[in-house]
Model the fold of this input.
Amino acid sequence: MNPKLDFVFARRSVRVYQAKDVGDDLVRDILEAAMAAPSAVAKDPWEFVVVRDRQMRAEIAGALPNGKMLAGAAVGIIVCGDLRRAHDGQLSYLLQDCSAAIENLLLAVSSLGLGACWLGVHPREERVQHIRGLLKIPEHVIPVAAIAIGWPAEAPKPRTRYRDSAVHRATW
Ligand SMILES: Cc1cc2nc3c(=O)[nH]c(=O)nc-3n(C[C@H](O)[C@H](O)[C@H](O)COP(=O)(O)O)c2cc1C
Done:
């Protein structure tokens, strides 16, 4: 692992958090990093719902079988995409753009000493509808993922998952 890329390998999913607040300034910094992501034709179709209320986070987690830690986080960010703004109105561009924003967000979280975990929402329709209803998200906006964020109470080690067999040189 090239030490210049430590910030990439140090980003791990953190699922246990301290009972400590994450301030609005940090949340803004994280979202600014998210919105610096690449986006097809720079359409920036992403939208973010910042959920601080613990009860609401617990209700969202109710629809996420592997996302119960959202209730114990300091803040949840629901990353959504607006189909009307996505390049060509295509879901695939929306998902690619939102995924790029999520990775930027996760790298920012980790670089700031915070911890986060990506919780899958789309394409599970029951999760999409549950979150849409709770957060009053309009029909043309798709909740793609929920991100649980907090000060870490566990420290997964940096690691590489490099697999040489995944690399096809010149042709497949
Ligand atoms: C689309 C997507 C959905 C995910 N959903 C969940 C989830 O519901 N619960 C969870 O604990 N982790 C979830 N993860 C995190 C992965 O489990 C994690 O990134 C993977 O195990 C690699 O570990 P690392 O993030 O520590 O490198 C999700 C990741 C992605 C990209």
Notes: The chain has a mean pLDDT of 98. Residues 24 and 30 are 10 Å apart (CA to CA).
